[in-house]
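Honest question from a wet-lab person: if I give you the sequences of every part of a complex, can you actually get the arrangement of the whole thing, not just the pieces? Trying it with mine:
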Amino acid sequence: MGGSTSSAIEIDAGHHWVVGFLGMQFNMDTLIMTWITMAIVIFLAWLTTRKRSLVPHGWQNIMEMMLDWLQGQMKPTLGRYWPVVSGLLFTYFIFLLVANMLGLLPIHHIMSPTSDLNTTAGLAIFSTILVWAIGIHANGMGFFKEFFKPYAPFVIVNLLEQVTRPLTLAFRLFGNILAGEIMLAVLNHLAPVLAPSVWIAFSILIGLIQAFVFTILVTSYLGLTIDSGEE
Amino acid sequence: MITINGTMWVQILNFLILVAVLAKFCYKPILNVMKARQERIANDLENAAKAKEAAEASRKEYEAQLANARREAQTIIDKAVKQADANTQAQLSELRTQLAREKEQARLDILQEREKAMRELRQDMVSLSIAMAGKVVARDMNTEENTKLVNQAIEQLDTKIVGL
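Yes, you can. This is the full assembly:
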């Protein structure tokens, strides 16, 4: 990204530091940001659990409140599979929440891992693998019969749905976060201080909503798969 | 620049590592604490309900015992009053019987005394009659007049002295 004039805005978002290894390309900046996100999440988990007690205090309160809220939202949808996937769904939410917020820090070269499509696509593909695995476990071969319902020709639509689900998951999150970071960079150039502050406040909300939407949609796909077998 | 490359697979691996770490060191302990708290609260509520039930049962038992004690006390008082009444009646009855008996005895004694007095009086009268008869004989009266005088004397004596 760059302009022909000296007043053109330089934007880091969307540009990556690519490194080749074993014939594959890796976005090292994204990976480093992901590891930083993981470190922050693990640090928060440590803060939460180091002095845990029956009467909760401080960070334990916040984590318990969040887990309880997520549990209330997702547990009824998943029934007996809740204990199997609860850890994954909690991690989706917490990881995405921290990752989405990271790019809002006013530090140069710090970006959200979720502003890279590789991250969101990876998470979306993994969620699809999870949905299929749970679907096969819950329904056996009946899971594949579902693709031919209500009539055989619907197999095309149903298969297309299986593809569009991860695509929409990945692009929705990626688009929201990348757009937010680009807007922040633009606003920093156009009207420093006030406008970016307002945009950061808005982006915090967007980051929270996107983390929740991603997690709740994965839950919903899992729920639909489990329900179709039980009907 | 939007390109999908090897980063995607590494991200999946990163995510799985994070899931494993958090599941073991965060969710499990926190959920265990939440579960323990839930059980503790449930137990406490259950115990409180039981304690309340026990207290209520004790209260009812005490009230029943109190009512029973009151009843028993009343019974004892009633019994004592009845017993006292019965004793009084028996004593009165005995007293009356004794009085009647003493009265009867007194009446019999009076009768006996009177009989005795009558007897003594009669004896005295006989003696007196004989004395009078001696005097009449000394005046030389005929037999008819003599008997008449004796009977008169006896009748007068009976009427005046004895009152028969």
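Two things worth pointing out. The helical segments of chain A are 28-49, 58-78, 82-102, 117-139, 142-145, 155-190, 194-230. Confidence is low (pLDDT under 50) at residues 1-6 of chain A.
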